[in-house]
């Protein structure tokens, strides 16, 4: 009898009523999760998403074919010239479509439109090459210093999408070693999200970060930013004290 009771109890435990996490209906199963209908529907949706992703990858690859090095060399009609005289070739139509600054240069009676040469002398060849590559492919290189340089270049030529991508990349890498520098950079280039992330980290680590060399350099170069740091720090202290007082009452 004991064995029969144990077998029946085991069967009962294996088959229990569950609530589907998708449709919220009850169903009987031997495992937790979703009902069969929702499971099958989710599987079909997953397969459809995989197909859509593969299709998008295929389209992107197709669109990028014309931006190969050979095509750029053979069919370009504009040159971006660096300070050393070296040039990076591009298509006028691409530059105009991606940057309102380039559009103004190449559609109006300006030297750049007449000579089909745009002089960009304050960036390195690698940075400018990455910039042009992004205009064609929307691909960036996972390099932190490159992201800073590209953000400045994107700001100068008003390529908003690239600017946003660079700011997100830099913000995700803010740490104790670069927080102060990132805060100053964010102020200089009006990068709101980067500024907030860097300031938050500085405030949380005031005792250590204010002893660093870059902090003392900031005091000399731009004391206004130091004032902002301390105002934010004191504001946080006041808010924390007020919350603690409220909780005690």
Automatic annotation (TrEMBL):
Annotated ranges, domain BTB: 76-144
Keyword vocabulary terms for this entry: Coiled coil
Key word Zinc-finger present: no
Entries under InterPro entries matching the protein: BTB/POZ_dom, SKP1/BTB/POZ_sf
Name of this protein: BTB domain-containing protein
SUPFAM superfamilies recorded: POZ domain (SSF54695)
Pathway: Protein modification; protein ubiquitination
Pfam family, one: BTB
Residue ranges that the Swiss-Prot or TrEMBL entry lists as coiled coil: 35-66
Species of origin: Picea sitchensis
């Amino acid at each position: 009898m004991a064995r029969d009771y144990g077998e029946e109890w085991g069967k009962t435990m294996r088959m229990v009523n569950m609530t589907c996490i998708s449709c919220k209906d009850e169903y009987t199963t031997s495992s937790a999760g979703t009902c069969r209908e929702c499971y099958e529907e989710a599987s079909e949706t997953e397969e459809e998403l995989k197909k859509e992703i593969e299709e998008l990858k295929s389209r992107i690859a197709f669109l990028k074919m014309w931006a190969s090095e050979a095509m750029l060399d053979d069919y370009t009609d504009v040159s971006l010239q660096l300070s050393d005289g070296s040039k990076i070739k591009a298509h006028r139509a691409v530059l105009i479509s991606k940057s309102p600054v380039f559009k103004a240069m190449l559609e109006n009676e300006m030297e750049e439109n007449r000579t089909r040469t745009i002089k960009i002398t304050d960036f390195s060849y690698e940075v400018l090459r990455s910039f042009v590559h992004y205009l064609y492919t929307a691909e960036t290189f996972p390099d932190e210093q490159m992201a800073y340089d590209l953000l400045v270049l994107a700001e100068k030529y008003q390529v908003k999408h690239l600017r946003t991508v660079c700011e997100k990349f830099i913000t995700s890498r803010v740490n104790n070693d670069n927080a102060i520098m990132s805060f100053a950079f964010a102020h200089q280039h009006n990068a709101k999200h980067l500024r907030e992330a860097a300031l938050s980290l500085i405030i949380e680590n005031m005792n250590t970060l204010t002893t660093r060399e870059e902090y003392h350099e900031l005091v000399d170069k731009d004391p206004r930013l130091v004032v902002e740091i301390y105002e934010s720090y004191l504001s946080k202290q006041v808010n924390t004290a007020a919350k603690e007082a409220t909780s005690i009452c």
